[in-house]
Amino acid sequence: MSDQLRQPSPELFFETVNAYQRTATIKAALELDVFTAIGEGRRTIQALAARCETSERGMRILCDYLVILSFLTKVNGQYGLTQDSALFLDRRSEAYIGNATEFLLSPMIMDGFEDIVAAVRKGGTVIPEDGTVAPENPVWVKFARGMASMMALPAKLIAKFLDIGDGRNLKVLDIAASHGLFGIEIALLNPNAEVVALDWPNVLEVAKENAQNAGVSERYSTLEGSAFDVNYGNGYDIVLLTNFLHHFDPSTCEGLLKKVHASLAAGGRVVTLEMVANEDRVSPPIPASFSMIMLASTPRGDAYTFSELQRMFENTGFLHNELHQLPPTMQRIVISHK
Amino acid sequence: MSDQLRQPSPELFFETVNAYQRTATIKAALELDVFTAIGEGRRTIQALAARCETSERGMRILCDYLVILSFLTKVNGQYGLTQDSALFLDRRSEAYIGNATEFLLSPMIMDGFEDIVAAVRKGGTVIPEDGTVAPENPVWVKFARGMASMMALPAKLIAKFLDIGDGRNLKVLDIAASHGLFGIEIALLNPNAEVVALDWPNVLEVAKENAQNAGVSERYSTLEGSAFDVNYGNGYDIVLLTNFLHHFDPSTCEGLLKKVHASLAAGGRVVTLEMVANEDRVSPPIPASFSMIMLASTPRGDAYTFSELQRMFENTGFLHNELHQLPPTMQRIVISHK
């Protein structure tokens, strides 16, 4: 219905004010492992309450709320998983992403939303010491552990997109490597790819663990420190810049991109994975609203538009940039050519 | 798109985990009075930042997020109010409901969502002393002050619905009167209506203030105490039971309804205003999800279905019950006849 035709309603206001209740409920549902219990075939309140060790009354109210939020189905009083819940929220699924809450709901991120008035006044985070971009912030170990599950698919899609499975020699630099999955997927696809992962030492422990588990440790080395300070070396065919630029303002990004440009071999490419907002800055909803997370948790970060990213790359010597969707993920990639 | 046809997506999970950010943002927008500033004609980031004393960068990110959430429009970089935001969130509007956050986001309500796992296990609130239903809980003064704006419309609609504007003598009991608006609107519509308002003494101060402002004080008296203990008197034509039964379990409700039945004159009516869930308990979204608020904040409260309410009234001697919508509000009324 168009805004003009329908009756005025306080519903959006009421739902938005109470939205924190959704966060609290999905967190509890994951902790109680309700999705796994339903996936195992428990479809009644009685069976679910017994399996998850809760009261029946509490389980009934929880499951009904999860139906309202579209995480569950309810037919004749029996609960079922939606396609997405079966894939992403049943702990037995390989694509389980429930542990992303360890990062997404970590105090470092949530604290930034305690006082949005102050953040809007200031124009950046009011968390002390620059919020999430403080050196060696332990929140990035949580990211590396918790978000790996959400990044597994984009990592596979990017490796495939790059068309490097032909066994050519390939030197890859993974900046702010985190869990390391982006570089590791390339190493898995191309047996002659060598990956250098750069991050804080505590975070690199997670990347090395993952490289070990993937069986690519011999072609996996690390550079410890800040991406702004460490010497990258040179001759890279591919530089991975995933979930990184959004933490900084454009001039800081450009400082980094100059270093990246210098480290690339002729014909080298940068792969930037980002929450890219459309030029209107209000769509698509998830990437565009990512700006608010950056306002709350960083001094000057943002969800950049493609034209803003393009400008940063052009200002630092790159020849041209392509924007690509990465469905079904919420993110997009920019490929920038030296 | 049907759930079967579209690609799997982690979007719902991501949005739900981050939903608390919506709460934080609407709260900040109201505190900064952004809606009023736009209503006054400030439509650019520069003008809004100046008026609300914020950074331009923070205001831009805030306003874009409010567009994403559908509170604002954005056309050619200029922001505007939606119909609902103009009516409900511009402080100059008579229907302004922004101060409802004083109650909706009071610690007493929000604390109940700190540990939903524990509430689901227990089957009721884990807030000490029975949560919001503790005697003389000061949260009800916040309700009376903050929620009056949201209850003004249902109060008018109910008074009109009751068809009592003909000047007949009318004795009205308003149980858990809070701001008093439900009784006051009846007194405004019928000059021979006498209203008795029952609530905790601290809450009745708000009701008396509102009765005074409405010019009906002479026909407005009060009964201090708990609705479960106080002697109501008798001979009432109408008993108002607004936003009350959902706090208690059915047997507690029935204990109260017996008292209510005894207090009514022959042919008397009870008006119950409630978040009434459909029989499936998962629709309509707002009333059905109200169960979760009751789980988090009361020992045994619920968003009852019509058949559950009907059973309580039938068990306590009422002859028949009618369910009525109260558009455009989110609530419904049940009229029960002695």
Automatic annotation (TrEMBL), chains A, B:
The keyword ATP-binding does not apply. InterPro entries: COMT-like, COMT_C, COMT_dimerisation, SAM-dependent_MTases_sf, WH-like_DNA-bd_sf, WH_DNA-bd_sf. Residues 139-318 form the O-methyltransferase C-terminal domain. One of its GO terms (biological process) is methylation. It holds the Pfam family Methyltransf_2. Residues 15-90 form the O-methyltransferase dimerisation domain. GO terms for molecular function: O-methyltransferase activity; protein dimerization activity. The active site is at residue 246. Keywords: Methyltransferase, S-adenosyl-L-methionine, Transferase. PANTHER family: O-METHYLTRANSFERASE CICE, PUTATIVE (AFU_ORTHOLOGUE AFUA_4G14580)-RELATED. This is Methyltransferase type 12. It comes from Neosynechococcus sphagnicola sy1.
